[in-house]
Amino acid sequence: MSEPTLNYVACPDANGGHRMAYWEWGDPANPHVVVCGHGLSRQGRDFDVLAGALCGAVRVVCPDVVGRGQSDWLKDPTGYQIPAYATDMLALLAQLGPATLDWVGTSMGGLIGIVLAGQPNLPLPAPVRRLVLNDVGPAIQWPALERIGQYLGNTGQFESLQQAADAMWAVSQSFGPHTPAQWLALSTHMVKPVGDDVRGALTLHYDPAIAVPFRGLTQEAAAQGEAAMWQLYDGIKADTLLLRGAQSDLLTRETALAMTRRGPKARLVEFAGVGHAPTLVAADQVEAVASFLLG
Predict the structure, then answer these.
(1) What pLDDT digit, counting tens, does each position of 81-109 carry?
(2) Cα gap 175→16, rounded to integer Å
(3) Which of 100, 213, 235, 283 could cross-link 118 (Cys pair, CB 3.0–4.6 Å)?
(4) Could you tell me the maximum CA-CA distance found in the chain, to the nearest angstrom?
């Protein structure tokens, strides 16, 4: 499989701005762009398998949300929140200039997609045509947030890629079955060298401070956010596909079914034996997204 190109976009903030990295697959002149937004502590290379399946037909762009992967870290960690991420994506989309725009979002990336697709007056170069929400919706279960909070920000130190992969698997088994090779591939871009450590030690490739606003979230604030997200969801005009891990603790089946009845009336596909969140590596998961976007 060919490798993507690494590019950057300048994004404004109150502290002089920052750079967001993005990985680009396919013909850079293709006017049909699919943007793939990753989960809370992940990065854009999570979508390598899906991008490889799509990039013959469309241009696939996979940003590293600020604070992750190859993107800058924010000077003020309170900026690590969905509205700011959505603003960064507006800068990215202005630079890309797609004529046709689709969005695939896993967990946090899906919430960013809801914000972009649910507001009619945003300065998008093209409206979101098709939206894939991967195991996320307006209502998020508090116990799932507590579970994620137990490990978020603990970037650790590892002697090898395999040791890092094993540590990540210990908190990621809800992603569902993966072969050792699949999990190692998903882990490769999640780590970076520790400074100039001559022993080759590795640490996770995100700013530990992304946990600061997350840990400051209260149940009351989460409930207010949920009401706002439902309002945005109800404003979505894009054709919407909702993916759900059948054992997900973050997106309940009740919420998923509600999403099929209101707003864009998403079509729902569930994957057995998977929790939060499907990694879009398994063939059936890739096929569900590819057939929706390219069909």
Answers:
(1) 999 999 999 999 999 999 999 999 999 99
(2) 37
(3) 235
(4) 56
